Predict the structure.
Amino acid sequence: MPTEFELIDSYFANSPVNREDVVLGVGDDAAVVQVPEGYQLVAAVDTLVSGVHFFPDVQPDALGHKALAVNLSDFAAMGAVPAWATLALTLPEVDTAWIRRFSHGFEQLAQQYQVQLIGGDTTRGPLTISVQLLGYVPAGHAVRRSGARPGDLIFITGTLGDAGAALAVQQGMLDAGAELRGALSQRLNKPLPRVGAGLALREVAHAMIDISDGLAADLGHILGQSDVGARIDFDRLPVSESLAGLVSQLNDAAQQRGRMQIKDVDGTRPAPWPGYLDFCLAAGDDYELCFIAPADAEDRIISELRKLECPMSVVGEIEAAPGLRARLADGTVVTVQPGGYQHFGNDP
Ligand code: ADP
Ligand code: MG
């Protein structure tokens, strides 16, 4: 069985990415990098725990991909350039085939964004993967959650709900053919972070967040930190063809997993709200960007994102009154209760 050092040497010491700004990479007590002049260091870390964040039998290359992808998505939301990563890997046993595939998934994505693995830690214990991503942003130009203003528009990249639907398929709540299953699980297991879009939006977005816990919760963070409210339009929420084909099943599945709390505008009585939209608002793991920008920037945003082939939708507007509201197809406005979502099966 290889020792810890042999493992590191074989799978983590030779990043296919060789950046000039890495002064010292894997092999010493710590790594040293050079942040470009006029830029600030940006850091994010995310931990994936087996049985909590992923199924123990998930493909190791998908796991390597996702562990980096979730951090890249955080960088996208800051408008930051990713550059360096460290990896803390806790493994129950030394399974070199597993480690090779994990490292392959990680490195493929790392190469795509020129992220160099510069260090880490390897320990024995319950399977846990922690990736720290480092990078930079022009000083003072990181996009925060706090800059949304009344009258600004709410934009979303891509589509929402596919990852949540993939989870529901895996839990046996939805019946989908092989092709559909494949398309949905790709969204759950191999999310594509919107790094290019985040960079393109850096000078135009007033606020930005990546959608990891569902639009309602994540937009809620922007609203809270910007001290504003918002209205989203029910029929503008972007859904994929896969999701559109599953609407009636999703409506049923939503009943099983617990419904979002949508109330009339007084916040007193439940309002009609198709269950499939819960998957767009509260299912999580989408890794799309939600960003806020002034209405007069819309044309510029459309053309910038078109160049990147990044789909984009305007889904609503920032308002002065606190709280999150949704406008239904018939024009009625309802309130979306913050944190008003009950996760299925968790509570006794
Ligand atoms: P130390 O005992 O000084 O913390 P280690 O023996 O843990 O050092 O690691 C030796 C070198 O290998 C260090 O440069 C460390 O950053 C790197 N390293 C350890 N594990 C990993 C890993 N999973 N991925 C990348 N680099 C790693
Ligand atoms: Mg040391």
Summary: Residues 60-78 form the longest helix (19 residues). The pocket of adenosine-5'-diphosphate (ligand 1) is lined by residues 8, 12, 26-29, 87, 89, 117, 119-122 (CB under 6 Å).
